[in-house]
Amino acid sequence: MDFDDTPDEAAWRAEVRAFLDEHKDELGQRAGARELDATVARRRQALLYDAGYVGVTWPVDAGGRGGTPMQQSIIDQEMARAGVPGLINLIGIGMCGPTVIYHGSEDQKRRYLQRLLRAEDLWCQLFSEPASGSDLAALRTKAVQDERGDWHVTGQKVWTTLAHLSDYGILLTRTDPDVAKHRGLTMFVVDMKAPGVTVRPLKQMSGGADFNEVFFDDVVIPDSERLGEVGDGWRVALTTLMSERLTLGGGGTEIGLSVEEVTRHVAAQVAALPPERQALVRQQLGRSYVSSLGIRYTGYRLLTALSQGNLPGPEASAGKLAGTTAARDLADLAVRVLGDDAVYGATADGSSTWQDLQAVLPGMAIAGGTNEVLRNIIGERVLGLPPEPRADKDKTFRELAAAGA
Ligand SMILES: Cc1cc2nc3c(=O)[nH]c(=O)nc-3n(C[C@H](O)[C@H](O)[C@H](O)COP(=O)(O)OP(=O)(O)OC[C@H]3O[C@@H](n4cnc5c(N)ncnc54)[C@H](O)[C@@H]3O)c2cc1C
Predict the structure, then answer these.
(1) Is any ligand 1 atom within 6 A of the Cβ of residue 161?
(2) How many domains does the chain fold into?
(3) 126 Cα–ligand 1 center, Å
(4) Residue 379 Cβ contacting ligand 1 at under 6 Å
(5) What is the mean predicted confidence (pLDDT) over 390-395?
(6) Which of 89, 186, 197, 375 minimizes the number of CB atoms within 10 Å of its CB?
(7) Which three-class secondary structure state does DSSP give residue 182?
(8) Calpha distance 140→181 (Å, rounded)
């Protein structure tokens, strides 16, 4: 592991920091749970893209900069340090775009990628269904090809983040029920404004409505919008899931909340507590600090591997698991010390409280792989424990569905 910036990295960090400082009024401040004004967020992403700070690792012919993961990580660290809100098209950049880069046609890349990076088009990931989340390969949304070659899609997705604002999505469908469940899948780009697509926002316990149910009622998708071969959707989806794990778990920056930030907010109240209660809070902050160092260094190990040209391993799962757990502990602590109504941040639309943030974080421990699923990955792929028994390996999807699996 190498902790120090090289001279090039230090120069890059200084450049990014100066840009964020110069544009801090346009970029705004992270204000907690309720901050999604889509127009403002699109403008913010375009400003960062035009300056060369979005899609840094993407190839130049895909609209990116052909830069290194380390450069991207420095941007992430500096944005977190400056309190700049995250990018609105994060799912597009982290999951959908890489899938188009690896599996799309030249025509798809030309039409979609640069617009995605500038947030001219927003993207969503249409994978999970009511009966298939962790067991993604059990999905039922079906696509049937007609004699002209067009595909007709019918089914339902759920928990689709940003679908209500999205222009396009990557959509995983079942095209052949008579082979094993991982085999008969095919991926498409779907136009979210196409006839037959209905998006219904779901209200979350945080008060927000960032994700949705999406219904497909005989939605027609031209064959030119297929990503990868017919029946090869699982391999295509693995590209997406690998990128997702990296986006959510890698890089050594905190997920949602840092121990330094919480300490800053609670310091005055803690100082006013009687000494025996101060000690309890200090112990908890100390514990969070130790785990944040573990997360940071695991992230750096991953970045070191990436910068040496190696593919990310299951350590990204460990980073996400530990990161979401640490963020939840910190939010719980802040609410206990500051009280239910303490304001975390404010935007033009109103303020959000620490309790709002506390209510958002459990979702992070589910999205992109639940804690239990991540523990399975760590158990099997890091610790070498025996794999879970899988009784569905030799059955076709049709047989499994008939058996109610
Ligand atoms: C905030 C948020 C945003 C999301 N955004 C998107 C999105 O944009 N696009 C998208 O497609 N999906 C999205 N999802 C869905 C997410 O991917 C699924 O919720 C997740 O994969 C879990 O699936 P599930 O909800 O069906 O739960 P299930 O898979 O039914 O799991 C239920 C419980 O069983 C446990 N469990 C399941 N399998 C195992 C196992 N093998 N071993 C041990 N325990 C197990 C789980 O850990 C969980 O506790 C989002 C979810 C959230 C919370």
Answers:
(1) yes
(2) 3
(3) 13
(4) no
(5) 81
(6) 375
(7) coil
(8) 10
Query: In terms of domains, do 377 and 278 share one?
Result: yes
Rounded Cα distance, 37 and 176, in Å = 41
Whether the per-residue pLDDT at 384 is higher than 90: the answer is yes
Pocket probe for ligand 1: among 88, 134, 164, the residue whose CB has the most ligand atoms within 8 Å is: 134
Q: What is the mean pLDDT of residues 252-281?
A: 85
Catalytic residue among 35, 78, 129, 244: 244
How open is the CA angle 34-35-40, to the nearest 5 degrees? 155
What residue has token string 């047989």?
A: 399
For the segment 43-59, the average pLDDT, to the nearest whole number, is: 95
Query: Both ends of the chain: CA-CA distance in Å?
Result: 45
Cβ(397) – ligand 1 distance below 6 Å: no
Amino acid type, 124? C
Between 62 and 307, the higher pLDDT residue:
62
Whether 32 and 152 share a structural domain: no
Q: How large is the greatest C-alpha to C-alpha distance in the chain, in angstroms? A: 77
pLDDT digits (tens, 9 = 90+) for 231-257: 999 999 998 887 776 776 655 566 667
- How many CB atoms sit inside 10 A of residue 39's CB? 8
Instruction: Tell me which residue has tokens 């101060």.
Output: 278
Residues 6+ apart with CB under 8 A from 11: none
258 and 372: one domain?
yes
Strand blocks (E) in 59-167: 123-126, 142-145, 151-161
254 is catalytic: no
**Structural domain span for residue 75:** 7-88
Note whether 257 and 212 are same-domain residues: no
Amino acid at 333: L
Residue 93: its pLDDT value, please?
94
CATH assignment of the domain containing 73: 1.10.540.10
- Taking CA atoms only, the protein residue closest to ligand 1 atom 40 is 373
Whose structure tokens read 């330094």?
Answer: 260
Ligand 1: does its nearest atom lie under 6 Å from the Cβ of 137?
no
CB atoms under 10 Å from CB of 37, counted, come to 16
